[in-house]
Write the structure tokens for this entry.
Amino acid sequence: MTATSLPTATQVPAGLDDVAAALAEAMPRTRAWLEELVRIPSISASADHAEECRRSAERTAQLLTEAGLDDVRLLELDPDTEGRVVAPYVTGSWSGAGAHAPTILLYAHHDVQPTATAANWASPPFEPTERDGRLYGRGAADDKAGILAHVAALRAWQDARGQLPVNVKVIVEGEEEIGSPNLDRFLAAHADELRADVIVLTDLTNWQVGWPGLTYALRGMAEAVVDVRTLAQPVHSGMWGGPVPDALTATTRLLATLHDDRGALTVPGFTDDVRPLSDDERGRLEALDLDEDTLRSDVRLLDGVTTAGDPDRSLLERLWMQPTITPVGMDVPRVAEASNTLLSHVRTKLSVRLAPGQDPERALGVLVDHLVASAPFGALVEVTLGERNAAWVMEPGGPAWDAATAAMTAAYGRAPAAMGCGGSIPFVQPFSDAFGGAPCLLVGVEDPGSNAHGEDESLHLEDFTKACLTEAFLLAELAARADQLHHA
């Protein structure tokens, strides 16, 4: 094994050459395991894929067992109150480092998003395909690569030394992509056995390809379904159009009350409890200096389409520290199937992202009141709320943060960016609270080009190697800070 087997930017910490070499040598095998998982369509949002979700959990359990963990098992809950089967959690542990060593909880999830329009993918969503140094496939980045980062790091230590430098517990969730609706029940049953000193979540994004990110803030999330009714049944658009309001026109007018012409939210009182940025935080955002051209390229914004939101706030503040309300689905006839009919009922799903500081119940109550009060033409409006969770924020710093910074700097050859994230991970706050405020390290395998949740999701393969190295180095860095972590 030569140094050229590692990414050129990587600077292996003193004393870890054997661990790094073992990890690099195993990367072809690690990638093969990742591709195997990607081929399993573990879509938690669809009951039709329940068996694939189970198969994904079972294969994940095998990989963790082969990585040297003890008591690996599938933890299953009874069906929920509506009789829906709960996708299995996978857990395992290794406790051979001794009582003084810290215990680290490693998290990832094995479920994936639906594929949207599969025909729009350049290659089949569940057939992993390499193009230009990236591996394409649903779940290749979010978050099956996170599972394999854990497996690669654990195996590297076991292959090189037959043991780990810290005690480890692993949990791989099966419902993260649907908002972790059964997490409270899971915690009530199993929190004690998963208690740890530090939580490492490998389900975030890096700042750029080759520039790692360490995330200290997540937006919260909620879902709302808005039903708008104007008629007891659809009627002929020619016979009755004009004086008779239809549900689709009423819905579009109602949705238009959520934003002004710039795309800034206009729901009265909705943003009242958003946490203002501190001077330090504003400085961190300014240091990253996201420009509009980069944003446009990352999301493939079409020529002529402007950015949205309050122009007095920076792009990163709008992305990470401000709330959003976005329609993401609507039940109406497809154009090819539409008749000349005034629609009687339209249903819309809203995705709500909550900023740090916002109380989900208060914010959603304000939103519901606004929607009902703003009904056009006196339409009947009913709002049904779904799962919700608050934003999460930690102050960058402390022994766990310092350990992650050192590990990332070694693996990537540059210090990580301190980042927020516009997405949500419902797991973070409840587990941190359950363990008495244990620090959470949110690290990533994605980059802005990964297009997680979208079409042609992909993983940058060299950065994937660096992410695996980061975790292997991180275990040593946390072990070296055992005294600080015990007294943090």
Q: What stands out?
A: The chain has a mean pLDDT of 94.
